[in-house]
What does this fold into?
Amino acid sequence: MFHPSFRTTLLAGFLLITSILGSAAASGWLMLEHFSRDSREESRQALALSTAVQQLTERSIDLERSARQFLVLRQAALLERFDAARIEALAALHAVETTLPAAARTAQDWRAHANAIQAALLDTDSDTAAAGLPRSLGQLPALNEALAAEASLAVERSRSSLLASLERSRERLALTLAAALAAAVGLGAVVGWWTLRPLHRIKRAIARLGDDRLDLPVVVGGPADLQQLGQQLDWLRERLLALQADRDRVMRHVSHELKTPLASLREGIALLRDGVVGPLSREQQEVAAIVEHNARLLQSRIEQLLDFNAIRFDAARLTRRPVNLRLLASRVAEAHRLAARARDLNISMSGSAPLVEGDEAKLETALSNVLGNAIAFAPSGSEIRIVLGHDGRTATIDCIDDGPGIPPEDLERIFEPFYQGRIRAERPCKGNGLGLAIVRELIAAHGGRIDVLSARRGAHFRLELPREQSTIAS
It folds into this structure.
């Protein structure tokens, strides 16, 4: 199946959106041009019709005046003037009739009366024709008024039709623009979804790789180049999985290989201190004690390393069920109550506790490590505050103490295995630097995170977990 590249997709989307909007603009321009042409034509016809009616009225007046003067004076020049006015009037009448076909009957009556007037003027010996001349002359103004009224009505109808056409064009243009904008927005949304969705997946995949969550494969759709990037990220994930497996295997082998000679070494030291090979001097006893102490310390470190690897392997194997964080935090605080009392520390709790889907035992281990770390560093007589909260998507547990805090140079490495900061705890037993590393592994397995927040004094750790909708009030 063909998948265009990211650049090709953006270019094609831009061209399609441009063509849609351009087509809408061209349609609007054509509608405007059509209306402008019709408007010019209507104005031209209205002007021609008005001019023809006005000329007909003026020539009718000249025709009537010439006819009446001829009846009185009987001069040939007046008859010639009458003929000239009649010819011009007939030409104007023809223009009216051509422009306004509905006035054909009125125009025919006008011609009949004009012909009757001409016949009466030429037949001067006929008393009947002469008697009918005033009646025919009197009909021409009425016919002119009728033609003017019909012309005015025709102009008004034409203007109304033009305005109706303009309104239809406006509505059609509005629909065209709305459809074009909807199509452009829809196409933009599709292109955006097609291109941005793989980017969000890539972002989430990179975040999972950064959180060492390598169990989920990286699957990226969309443009071809983004699919290739997703394939490369999945190759990187598999490579990291292989390196992690190699590292764990090497650590197991090394730990096992170290434990065997270490056990022999401790057994030999025990034989020496028991005097099996002969009595030891006081100095030799001190040396043997130092060697035995360091052998025990080395064995403890090897066992801690094996335990940490076991916890990392077990972190992703969760038994999920709804967990009440309020009850969990109360149980952890109660478990540390004696240790806190021994150092004259007070543990307080506040806030609401949402339900989360998680492994209750592992979450308890994580919070216990954080609280134990706070007890180790908090000064005697101070307070350790556990604050529970939530927002739309996450539930939070804040653990705040009044200890020396975390130096800025330690913030980047505080969650690394076996790393111990520059500030030492006041407790007598020295830590191994695995507590916070274990917390990060357990919280990350739940899809959450642990952060160190800035505080005016002391250390402020925040555990964030994906939450459910229901919330238990404090």
Remarks:
- Residues 341 and 347 are 9 Å apart (CA to CA).
- The longest strand covers residues 383-390.
- The mean pLDDT is 80.
